[in-house]
Amino acid sequence: MTLTWAWLILFLATYPWLVASDLLSSSLSSWNLVFYISGLVIVAPCRRLRRWQAILFSAFIGFTFEALRPIPHGSLAFCLIFLAIILSSFPDLLRDKARLRQGAILVNTISGFIWYLAMSISLREEIPFQFSLFLYNATLQLLLSAALTLLLFNTISVYQNRVMDKLRIP
Amino acid sequence: MKNLFNESPHSTPSDPLSRVRINFLFIFFIAGFIYITAGLAYRQLVQANEIMVQSDNQIKRVVIRPPARGKIYDRHGYTIVDNRVRWSVKADLLSLQPEFRQEYLSLIRKAKSDPTVLKINYDALSEQARLNVLNGWLDKIWFVIDANTDKPKRSKNASKLPLNKEERTVNLLALRKHLTESRALKFTLITDLAFPGSENASDPDEANRTVARFIEQFPQGGPISLESDMVRSYPYSTMAAHVLGYVRDSTDLPPNVDDFTDLNFDNLQKLRYTGKRGAAGIEQTFDPILSGASGWELWTKTSSGYNKELLRSSEPRQGSSINLSLDINIQLAAEEALRTIKDSTGNPLPGAAVMLDVNTGEILAMASQPTFDPNQLVNRISNKYYDEIENQGGWLNRATQGQYAPGSTFKIITAIAAMRNQVIDWDDILECGTSFRVGNRDFPEHGGEAFGSVDVEKMLTISCNVWNYRVGLKLGPDLLAKEARRFGLDAPLLRMPPSLSNPSTTELPYPTNRLVVPDPAYKQRIGAGPWNSGDTANMSIGQGYTLTTPLHMACLAASVARNETRTTPTIIHDPNRDGRHEGATSIGLNKDQLEAIRSGMKRCVEEGTARSMQIEGLTIAAKTGTSEYFKNGEKAHLAWVIGYAPADNPAVAFAVLIEGQLDTSTWGGKTAGPVAKAMLEGWLQENDKD
Amino acid sequence: MDNNRQGAKASIVALIVFIGLWIALPSTIRRLNKEAFSEFQAPAIQLLSKSRDLARYWELRSRSTEDLVAAGRDLARINATLELKLHAMEDIRKENLRLREMLRYPNSTEYLTVVARVATRDTSTWWQRMLIRKGRNDGIRPGCPVVFGNRVVGRVTTVHLNISEVELVTSPAFRCTAFLEGDDPPRIVHVSGVASNPFTTGRAKVSTTGLGGVFPAGLILGTLEGGVTSTAQGNLKEAYMVPSKNLDTIEEVSVLVPKYPTAGEILMSPTDRIKLEEFK
C touches which chains (3+ CB pairs under 8 A)? Predict the structure, then answer.
């Protein structure tokens, strides 16, 4: 029982972090940047959860991020699911702490880029698409995502691992 | 070959034949090798560009966008032809493809389940699917524009847009044409959103409301977009319509802006938006100046022929503007006055009015009635409107294209000819009765009155016919004709100045080329028999075969005012114009003779036939004329007045012509006089301002 | 390990199949999914915003009595002036009604005002939005204008049960028509995406036209930041506009809900589709 619903409990436990990042984006809204951490929070769980659990967990994270934002629905969720499949299938990629952190940075920036791209494509008809502007802003956004991962990954993964320990996930 | 080479080292060098043969073969092979290598290199290096271009041509296309036309100003810089932004609603057919497909499939399903349909016409269904989808969108657009949510149920007096059925459903023919000719461009659903159905143009508030409703309420993004371009706008509507002309849709766009030297345009597929070309008046003759340069966009295209990605583009360049010599105040005054001239049944009479600057020859006003509103012709020239104007005869610029007998205004020429040829002098007096017998026919005085002793001055004041018959007969037709030609009554006018490099030859299009100053040879030529003295008598009072235009008569008045024979009129304003007139010489009268003509014209206004145009504080010199012509077999009158003002220091010259209809109630002074007066009042107002 | 990898392959194939299914799925299901996740987050957002209110409350509690007394006095003064203005407004409103009656002038769209607190802001280069703490339950509909006083804040785009998403005037996708102050005759201006730098001093005020049937007339959108440029074709002129209110600090807004849904709203809401013919 516990194991079947572990991913959901883990998701609920992770959710406050997402809210906190939204709060941060909101209070610094004049920066025009989103404090994006949805990618990095799936890394630690994917290492320990079973694959289907990891998939569900990532899907929930993705859908949550998309729900209140004008992004084509599903774009981020499916990207995260894809990354979750990769992560949970090749655990040897995340052997040690350093690799884990590198992986987190990669996952966060890749998924961050994907939603940014999906959004700018979907809004293309309303807003004239300027490639230079897109490149500039996307780079800023990705740098921020990477920096956030560096700063927060340890804390979040320690927290998530603690929760998973509590749930007695192997 | 192999053998040969293998053998060669063994063959004796002393064998000249084999040496030659080997050398020959060697050279042959080397040449072949070089040829192949060079060919390959040529293809790779030199032709590479070309081949690339060829493959480019298959995936790229150029879309050419028309520029905005230049503006037209009057002599004081008021804008008389402007551009206004036209908002059109367009549909992007490429992003509608999935919808088309869905509709198409559902139509097929419907057709298959329908037992009455024996054979499914897939092409027709595909077309129908497109039509359905586009009509669906159009419904939505009109729904947003129409819906009056101020009251949930429309009350009867709620304002309604002029409903134009054609813009409410997609025109199948237009869609077909679009798909075959220009499917890469967006399809226009509504041409002019602000003025849907320009035939009954709505007020500007309603126009703004329509656009605003679309912008604020129609869901953003998606396949429907609002695009703007520039169309002609004639703020004074019918004013000077014949001079200004109008524009017509055309895909023959002006040349491109030339910043694409590295692009090989010639071989690329080109698509052109519909632009505008001048179709009449100044818009036509000065089209190369007004039309500017087209912009272009370089697109890649999809396999089905839609535009995919914009690679490069260049904005169109607006045409140059033109300053006309017209003065809108005088022009408006002339047209207003012309409109009020009506026959006994209350119908407005056709006519024309021209005013010139005496010194420069610049045309200050040129009006022609009936007229048209070029604004009505901006989006599309409807047959209904065209026929309406056609039936009224409104397309004709009567000032330059109408041909009329000058009537008594010609007596100025008769008098000048007589004095120059010493037939009569300024103070010679002729006794004039009620009629004059020429051959076996009595030529009457106008009004049946006997004027008694008449000299040149009195003749012009009262417009005595008998004086002219007598003088004319003494002069003979050749001298009369020579004098008329000296004043250029049959000379083409408004030739384009050579400084304007413009293929059009005249400043206004198609001036009449059927001007007639008759002489015996002319009568022979048209096969009307030998010239007789009756013809001379008629000619001396401007009747008979003589045909000229109001513009010619205005030029005559200006020439007399300057004591010259010719005036070169122009419609273009140039503040540095030197006032020299092509072919102009002094009239050749002595001071007294000239004074007799001038004071005769002055007294014509003071006490003679042109009394109706007296203006306090302005001395005017004028000559009226009433000539007879046959309109649909009925006798009718042409009313003329020509002249200049101020009489002592001439500044403007004018000519007015009214075509009487059906009856003979139209008279030179009475009918045409008020129009000339209105123009002069307009000029006075304008003069007081300076 | 190999087994795991093969599983990965299968999973990815399954994912691709599922993505295909997802795209082919009726949009209602996708919308439901999105709605569910939005509603899941709504309480958290509400809670967040309320806790911020609470923080503000405690912050105020910590103020000295002196300060509060002074603030109360100021407020009383402001109230008195507003009271006076309100009376004058009421008179003007009646006069206006009477004149409209006399001229048989159609009444402008009537609005119900819903006051809402700002929950969070969410901005990126491509969107400028905020979430407000009122939703479908409070009668808010997509497309409603959102104002602060007489200034335009934005427009509601999506409505959830208890929260709504508002597109700000600074958003590149925002569209509206406007008049410029001192423009005679008034020409219609199309506003699309306002520059978001609020610190430059503007010149001419830009206010809504009221013609489009969404925004009432005379609301202030912002001020023009000098320097009008012509577009290349010369058919339009462009100028930057700065919004009238610093949207980063705004805490409370009013949503103007038209009494009757506008045509645009009807087109926007797929759920309660009214047949176009019926409405006509």
Answer: A, B
Could you tell me the residue ranges of all domains in chain A? Answer: 2-166
Residues 208-237 on C with a CB inside 8 Å of B are: 209, 211-215, 232-236
pLDDT of residue B621: 94
Q: Which residue, among C30, C31, C117, C124, would best test binding to A if mutated, counting the most A CBs under 10 Å from its CB? A: C124
- Characterize the bridge pairing of strands B307-314 and B60-65: unpaired
Domains of chain B by range and CATH? Answer: 2-46 (no CATH), 61-322 (3.90.1310.10), 328-371+396-689 (3.40.710.10)
Distance from CA of C1 to the nearest CA of B (A): 44
φ, ψ (nearest 5 deg) of residue B229: -145, 180
Q: Is C125 an 8 Å CB contact of chain A?
A: yes
**C-alpha closest to that of B413 among B222, B612, B625:** B625
- What single string gives the DSSP state of each residue in C207-275? EE-S-SSSSPTT-EEEEEEEEEEE-TTSS-EEEEEEESS-TTT--EEEEEEESS--HHHHHH-STTPPP
Distance of alpha carbon A119 from alpha carbon A121, whole angstroms: 5
Contacts of A66 in chain C (CB under 8 A): 34, 37
How many angstroms separate the Cα of B102 from the Cα of each of A72, B97, B435? 21, 9, 90
| Among A31, A73, A119, beta carbon nearest to C34 | A73
This complex has an ipTM of 0.87
- Looking at residue A93, what DSSP letter applies? G
Tell me the angle at which helices B591-606 and B411-420 cross, rounded to the nearest 10 degrees. 160
| B527 Rama class: left (phi>0) / alpha (psi -120 to 50) / beta | left
Which residue is closest to A122 within chain C, CA to CA? Answer: C126
Return averaged pLDDT per consecutive 10 residues of chain B, 690 residues in all.
Answer: 42 59 73 72 63 64 84 91 83 87 90 84 89 88 68 37 58 86 82 60 65 81 79 86 90 75 69 84 90 84 72 82 93 93 83 94 94 83 84 91 92 94 90 88 85 91 92 92 92 80 74 88 90 92 92 95 93 88 90 93 91 91 88 83 93 93 72 92 84
CB contact under 8 A, B85 and C236: yes
Reading the block at residue B475, the tokens are 């002069």
Q: How far is C120 from chain A (nearest CA, A)?
A: 5
pLDDT in tens, B232-280: 888 888 899 999 999 888 878 887 776 665 666 677 777 778 788 888 8
Tell me the chain C residues in contact with residue A119 when contact means C-beta distances shorter than 8 Å. Answer: 124, 126-127
Q: Which of B143, B150, B209 sits opposite C109 (nearest CB)?
A: B150
